[in-house]
Amino acid sequence: MGRVIASITTSVDGFITGPDDGPRYGLGRGGERLHYWVMGGPWTYDGGHEFAMHGPDKEFYDELVAGTGAGIVGRGMYDAAGAWGGTNPFPGPLVVLTHRLADQPPPESGFTFVAGLDEALERAAAASGGKDVSVGGGADVIRQALAAGRVDELVLSTAPVLLGAGKRLFDGFDRDVNLEILQTVSSPFATHVRYAVRK
């Protein structure tokens, strides 16, 4: 297996969503500003949007996902994204960490539901073809993986916005973790930092 890479976008004040995130507003009210870098500029839930990533953001993202063979996300992210219309949009199979296993989607969707982090990591590693395993949102999944010592690299994309409310990435996290900066890439919409997690 390759590395386990946890990645997420946060505001300068540490929020990964604005308030009231859910299927209608996946990143919460005002949270769409977190993903200006993904969309290539300002967008709104009500005005429609396209994935138009470009420049330093696209170069950073392309390099990050080039080695990805499978991923893990939490049920909250899966639900807030509307299950991405029923088809996994990411490179490789996507394992969804959830306690509600009964509504497992069909295999052709690219999603596999599991109940625990260890099983999720095992399934993703087995499906990755020896490539990296990406651990995405929500915050709880990333905190669990970091606390368990299972993350090799932490990637934080920080959007230049203060949200003031929502879900915090490290809310309740009480571990002492040493990080080493591997790479920094900036654009008008985000500063992306790749950290090695020193164990």
Automatic annotation (TrEMBL):
UniProt-listed Gene3D superfamilies: Dihydrofolate Reductase, subunit A
Name the UniProt record assigns to this protein: Deaminase-reductase domain-containing protein
Annotated Pfam families: RibD_C (PF01872)
Ranges of residues in domain Bacterial bifunctional deaminase-reductase C-terminal: 4-183
PANTHER family: BIFUNCTIONAL DEAMINASE-REDUCTASE DOMAIN PROTEIN, DIHYDROFOLATE REDUCTASE FAMILY PROTEIN (AFU_ORTHOLOGUE AFUA_8G06820)
Single Gene Ontology MF annotation: 5-amino-6-(5-phosphoribosylamino)uracil reductase activity
SUPFAM superfamilies: Dihydrofolate reductase-like
Top-level taxonomic group: Bacteria
InterPro entries, per the entry: DHFR-like_dom_sf (IPR024072), RibDG_C (IPR002734), Riboflavin_Biosynth_HTPR (IPR050765)
One of the GO BP terms on file: riboflavin biosynthetic process
